[in-house]
TrEMBL record:
<feature type="domain" description="Cytidylate kinase">
    <location>
        <begin position="3"/>
        <end position="216"/>
    </location>
</feature>
<dbReference type="GO" id="GO:0005829">
    <property type="term" value="C:cytosol"/>
</dbReference>
<dbReference type="GO" id="GO:0006220">
    <property type="term" value="P:pyrimidine nucleotide metabolic process"/>
</dbReference>
<keyword id="KW-0963">Cytoplasm</keyword>
<comment type="similarity">
    <text>Belongs to the cytidylate kinase family. Type 1 subfamily.</text>
</comment>
<dbReference type="InterPro" id="IPR027417">
    <property type="entry name" value="P-loop_NTPase"/>
</dbReference>
<dbReference type="GO" id="GO:0015949">
    <property type="term" value="P:nucleobase-containing small molecule interconversion"/>
</dbReference>
<feature type="binding site">
    <location>
        <begin position="7"/>
        <end position="15"/>
    </location>
    <ligand>
        <name>ATP</name>
    </ligand>
</feature>
<keyword id="KW-0808">Transferase</keyword>
<dbReference type="GO" id="GO:0005524">
    <property type="term" value="F:ATP binding"/>
</dbReference>
<dbReference type="GO" id="GO:0036431">
    <property type="term" value="F:dCMP kinase activity"/>
</dbReference>
<dbReference type="GO" id="GO:0036430">
    <property type="term" value="F:CMP kinase activity"/>
</dbReference>
<keyword id="KW-0547">Nucleotide-binding</keyword>
<protein>
    <recommendedName>
        <fullName>Cytidylate kinase</fullName>
        <ecNumber>2.7.4.25</ecNumber>
    </recommendedName>
</protein>
<dbReference type="Pfam" id="PF02224">
    <property type="entry name" value="Cytidylate_kin"/>
</dbReference>
<dbReference type="InterPro" id="IPR003136">
    <property type="entry name" value="Cytidylate_kin"/>
</dbReference>
<keyword id="KW-0418">Kinase</keyword>
Length: 221
């Protein structure tokens, strides 16, 4: 079973995907974290975020892994826990540029498809239903207002000890939305057969229930 959850930044994709995957005993694949890890690799390697060849060389020399620790999925880059490092403002600001590089996308998409071919998976990102898993049995496109998404990110940052003004977060989200939806390769776009779900006025439990119901309905068909 392949479940694709797409949508803009901070629409709640990762949060609900993790919970649904855990409840159904599926593998959760956070594609956004993979591109953030690539951006971190570029930053730590002191290469320009537009230098595709240099970034690909660094990725080839690096490892990106997901590890479940307790009730949390951690992202490891070159053996080090990078779960917080990939969420900092600098990475957030530059991940769209790195993820738009053709070679980087190709490398990550191949890895994502390989993971999905071996397990029941829930995968979230920007182009899962349109590009990565076009034949996914369940496709969901989450949306939410910019204000509600900024509030969620602000609270998430606060919990992680990252301090950023909410107005700056709102601006960052608007810029990210524009970049993601206007990039030449695999832009943020709702698949024709995806079900749109507005999470602006829904809490996490309600979104989880909606998505779980859609998966269960598909299992019966």
């Amino acid at each position: 079973m392949q479940v694709a959850i797409d949508g803009p930044a901070s629409a709640g994709k990762s949060t609900v995907a993790k919970i649904v995957a855990k409840n159904l005993n599926y593998i959760y694949i956070d594609t956004g974290a993979m591109y953030r890890a690539c951006t971190l690799i570029a930053r730590d390697g002191n290469v320009d975020y537009s230098d595709e060849k240099a970034i690909l060389n660094l990725i080839d020399q690096s490892t990106i892994e997901f590890k479940n620790e307790g009730n949390e999925q951690k992202v490891y880059v070159n053996g080090k826990d990078a779960s917080i490092a990939i969420r900092t403002p600098e990475i957030t600001e530059n991940v769209s540029q790195v993820s738009a590089l053709k070679g980087v996308r190709q490398k990550m998409v191949n890895l994502q498809r390989e993971m999905a071919g071996k397990n029941n998976v829930i995968m979230d990102g920007r182009d899962i239903g349109t590009t990565v898993l076009p034949d996914a049995q369940v496709k969901i496109f989450l949306i939410a207002s910019v204000a509600s998404r900024a509030r969620r990110r602000f609270l998430d940052f606060k919990e992680k000890g990252i301090h950023q003004d909410i107005a700056d977060i709102e601006h960052d989200i608007e810029v990210r939305d524009y970049k993601d939806s206007h990039r030449a390769i695999s832009p943020l776009k709702k698949a024709d057969d995806a079900i749109e779900l507005d999470t602006t006025n829904l809490n996490i439990d309600q979104v989880v229930q909606e998505i779980t119901a859609l998966i269960e309905k598909n299992k019966k068909n």
